[in-house]
Every structure is written in structure tokens, then in C-alpha cells.
Design goal:
By secondary structure, the protein is an alpha/beta fold. It has a single domain, classed as Aldolase class I (TIM Barrel), CATH 3.20.20. Helices cover 34% and strands 19% of the residues. The longest helix is centred in the C-terminal third of the chain and has 15 residues. It binds D-xylitol-5-phosphate and zinc ion.
Length: 223
């Protein structure tokens, strides 16, 4: 079996008691925390920044934190997220003027870089940077809001990127984000993803452990 990772998006967590809710989802078996940063500029919504990430670390969250930046510009805030305890930092290539510079900035600050492709953003963005990436995140909804419907056209894109990753001979996580739930996680995995962001499917469920365990059971049956 592949080294599958489940990354709950805290966009659907209870912000009034965030530390507690994040701890609960980790105790329920989450592998890493997906931290959605929105700026009401690159995307039409506003969430949280490095101070909240740091607060989670201070609260005692030790799991990997996967910071998904939906912000423009990107570079200014990267060192702050690194200091705040981020592990992966992913960003949208359309949101920076200098793709290679932003990737190197993330690495120089001790984090693992990744780029995020929106549903209509071409895979060709990867051509000259794949050798420098630790994660590729494919959006299966348009970024900005939780609880949207999975866009099926993403499946083909997942397979093409899986191919590119295998040919690169690098260890790059292939993460998919948006509308993933118990019903569709198997087709996302079969297409080639190994890291699954799920916000509403986990945080809006009555029992986080039951939901994550059921997702893992589905994944364990994939050959
Ligand atoms: C959307 C975010 C996602 C979102 C996923 O812009 O990047 O991480 O929270 O939420 P669900 O799983 O509810 O689609
Ligand atoms: Zn996200």
C-alpha cells in the first residue's frame, strides 16, 4: 500500500476553540493539518495567518502543518510561517512574479515547498520546477470556500501529474484538495493521489475517528 496521508483542513474546524478541535482531529488519526490561508484578494475569503499557526504550536500541536497559501503577493509572509512552525508551504504560481525565487525562499527558510494548481491552471507550470518541489497540490474545487463539489475533470490531471512525479524519481507528495469525502476518496487515490485534504467531510461529521478510519479502510483496499 502507498503511504497515504489524510490532511484535515481546519477551514471547517470550530474557530472558537481551534486548539482543542485540532487536537481532537489528530487524536482521531489525522496525519497532518491542512492550514488554509486566504487574503480576500487572491481569493474572495479571509481566514488566518502565521500567528494562529504559532498558537497551535504553543498549544502543543506537534503534527506536520501543511500551509496552503491562497494569497497574493506570497513572498513577504513566508519567513513568518516558517518561524510559526509550518512544515510544508504551498502557493499558487499565478500569485507570484518569480516562481523559482518563491520556491527557494521556502527552502531557505527550512520548509518543504509545493505549488498548487487550480482546476484550470495547466500542468505545464511544473515543467521547470518539479525538480525543486516536495509537494504538488491539485485543486479539485476553485479555491476560497469549504464544502464545494469535487470537480471530476481533476481525475485526469491527477493521473498526468502522477506520471510526471514517477518520472522525476523524486519523493513528491501528490495532494488533492476540495470536495473529498468517503464516497470519492477511492477514485482520487486510484488516479494517483497520496495525500487527501478533507475539510467538511471530517469536521462536519459527528465522529472524526469514525470518518478518518473509514477513509483509511477505503484506501487500504486500493491495489
Ligand atoms: C478551498 C481550500 C480547501 C477546503 C477543503 O479553498 O483550499 O482546503 O477547505 O474543504 P472541503 O474538504 O470542505 O472541500
Ligand atoms: Zn487548501
Amino acid at each position: 500500500m502507498k503511504d497515504y496521508k489524510i490532511a484535515p483542513s481546519i477551514l471547517s474546524a470550530d474557530f472558537s476553540r481551534l486548539g482543542e478541535d485540532v487536537k481532537k482531529v489528530i487524536d482521531a488519526g489525522a496525519d497532518m493539518i491542512h492550514f488554509d490561508v486566504m487574503d480576500n484578494h487572491y481569493v474572495p475569503n479571509l481566514t488566518f495567518g502565521p500567528m494562529i499557526c504559532e498558537s497551535l504550536r504553543k498549544y502543543g500541536i506537534t503534527s506536520m502543518i501543511d500551509v496552503h497559501l491562497m494569497i497574493k503577493p506570497v513572498d513577504r509572509i513566508i519567513p513568518d510561517f516558517a518561524k510559526a512552525g509550518a512544515n510544508y508551504i504551498t502557493f499558487h504560481p499565478e500569485a507570484t512574479d518569480h516562481l523559482d525565487r518563491t520556491i527557494n525562499l521556502i527552502k531557505d527558510n527550512g520548509c518543504k515547498p509545493g505549488i498548487v494548481l487550480n482546476p484550470a491552471t495547466p500542468v505545464s507550470y511544473l515543467e521547470h520546477c518539479i525538480g525543486n518541489l516536495d509537494m504538488i497540490l491539485l485543486m479539485s474545487v476553485n479555491p476560497g470556500f469549504p464544502g464545494q463539489k469535487f470537480i471530476n475533470g481533476t481525475l485526469e490531471k491527477i493521473s498526468s501529474v502522477r506520471h510526471l512525479i514517477d518520472n522525476s524519481e523524486r519523493e513528491i507528495r501528490l495532494e488533492v484538495d476540495g470536495g473529498i469525502n468517503l464516497e470519492n476518496i477511492d477514485k482520487v487515490a486510484k488516479a494517483g493521489a497520496d495525500t487527501f485534504v478533507a475539510g467538511s467531510a471530517i469536521f462536519n461529521s459527528d465522529n472524526y475517528k469514525k470518518t478518518i478510519t473509514s477513509m483509511r479502510e477505503v484506501l487500504s483496499k486500493i491495489k
